[in-house]
Amino acid sequence: MIEIRDLRHRFGDVVALQGLDLTVSQGDLFGFIGPNGAGKTTTLKILATLLEPSAGEARVGGHSVREARAEVRRIIGYIPDFFGLYEDMTVMEYLRFFAAAYRIHGEKRESIVKDVVELCDLGSRTEAYVDLLSRGMQQRLGVARVLLHDPAVLLLDEPASGLDPRARVEMRSLLEELSRMGKTILLSSHILWELGALCNRIAIIDEGALKFCGTLEEARARAFGGKMVVVEVRQRAAEAETALAGLAETAGCKREGARILATLAAGREDPAPLARALADGGFSVTRFGEEAIDLEEVFRRLVRGG
Known about the structure:
Elements: E1 2-11, E2 14-24, E3 29-33, H1 40-47, E4 55-60, E5 63-64, H2 69-75, E6 76-79, H3 91-101, H4 106-119, H5 135-147, E7 153-157, H6 165-180, E8 184-188, H7 192-198, E9 201-206, E10 209-214, H8 216-224, E11 228-233, H9 237-245, E12 250-256, E13 259-264, H10 272-280, E14 285-290, H11 295-304
Parallel strand pairs: 3-8, 3-9, 6-7, 7-8
Antiparallel strand pairs: 1-2, 1-4, 4-5, 9-10, 11-13, 11-14, 12-13
Helix pairs in contact: 3-4, 4-5, 5-6, 8-11
């Protein structure tokens, strides 16, 4: 659905993007990760046809962002990190105004506005003035606005920025619902743990260059060398570490008190041999399972080589 090939952009002497290659498939809920100044917003603006790339190509739904801007704009919904609000409008007036801008009129307009209000859970605030809404409500209103023309692709730049914990949970639920509806979502965020729980694929970008693209499991394998299993034993932790480290299935072990982190060797996905070795050794195991993905640690290792 989104294809980026050798995309480059400069702001004077500053290189914002340097040969970015990226593919987002239809139906992906795709996390776009990078430190400030990495090139995330520049990429999203190019995809939204708001910025002309210096070189390279980007296509959305098969349409070139250079040569078919109108076609791209018909199938995308773009929410910047901060978007303009018309302060003297109520929520319903705001949505009706933008529906008219999308050339949606009459009964169809009223029906669509009603649908997006319900989807974004704005029903209790329809007569409230936009500038009096909470930050979370304003973000949901922004999502409602870009859904009016039923875009296939959503480009969201830090949609949870500045939200309190409850509003972030509500935003996450809304994005999950949009994903279930079949929308392709490219989402940038600095709240890494939320992306880890939300997205099926991620890309990590730094200094305008792609560092990684793939699933969370693939990112973990790239950063740590393989799948990790956490083991806790009641006693003889040092002996348990030695037993696990000697197996062909493990690439390394690290012990923290009674807790042992065992990294599976490349190509070894089944942790069962580790469990058998512990049972054969007579160890009293209190915990055995895969270690949860720590996206922040993955990010640190892949971006900075930590």
